[in-house]
Amino acid sequence: MISIVVADDQMMVRQSFRAVLDAQSDMRVAGEAENGLAAVELCARQVPDVVLMDVRMPELDGLAAARRILAAGGGARVLMLTTFDIDEYVYGALRAGASGFLLKDAPLDDLVTAVRVVAAGNALFAPTVTRRLIGQFATRAPLGDAGKRLAELTARETEVLRLIAGGLSNTEIAEALVIAEQTAKTHVSRVLTKLGVRDRAQAVVTAYESGLVVPGAG
């Protein structure tokens, strides 16, 4: 059973999400929060698997709330919700460790799928949105130790990271490299471990920050 916290300042949105998610046999909404501060406090009590976090909220914005929740180390995965397809706050959330984001005007079926994807430990990437967002804002981010971490990868793992940054799934990576899907999955796992990141979202951020992938490049 996937435990979920819904954080949004609009009651209608929260109730709509709760109705859809609670109707799933494998999901349970553990609570709702009307602002970022309430979300942090609720997550500390409930320790959910997934947090649906609106980017812009009173008291404490979604980005700051996501940072606090992820820093607490309870294991929750944060899925940011935004009305805008390009939002600098969302890139900041990815850097902070959020597992992706979803547009609030997406079909409710997409919401259900997104929760399952994130709960399974994967990152959620909307090809026409997330790649464009990262491409626009990655150049503003400090390089930090991204380059040093990249040096730990083998040539094959570096190529796998480049494909991850392109939004490819394990199956697509296997096809691109002409290897077995299980082998691709192993490579992806090793890449995440060596980079010290929790999922594909942070791996993509590292790929851009290190300069391995250049924003806007084909």
TrEMBL record:
InterPro entries: CheY-like_superfamily, NreC/VraR/RcsB-like_REC, Sig_transdc_resp-reg_C-effctor, Sig_transdc_resp-reg_receiver, Tscrpt_reg_LuxR_C, WalR-like. PROSITE patterns: HTH_LUXR_2, RESPONSE_REGULATORY. Residues 146-211 form the HTH luxR-type domain. Gene3D superfamilies: 3.40.50.2300. Transmembrane segments: none annotated. The modification 4-aspartylphosphate is found at residue 54. The keyword Magnesium does not apply. Keywords: DNA-binding, Phosphoprotein, Transcription, Transcription regulation. It comes from the Bacteria. Residues 3-119 form the Response regulatory domain. This is Response regulator transcription factor. The lineage of its organism: Bacteria, Bacillati, Actinomycetota, Actinomycetes, Pseudonocardiales.
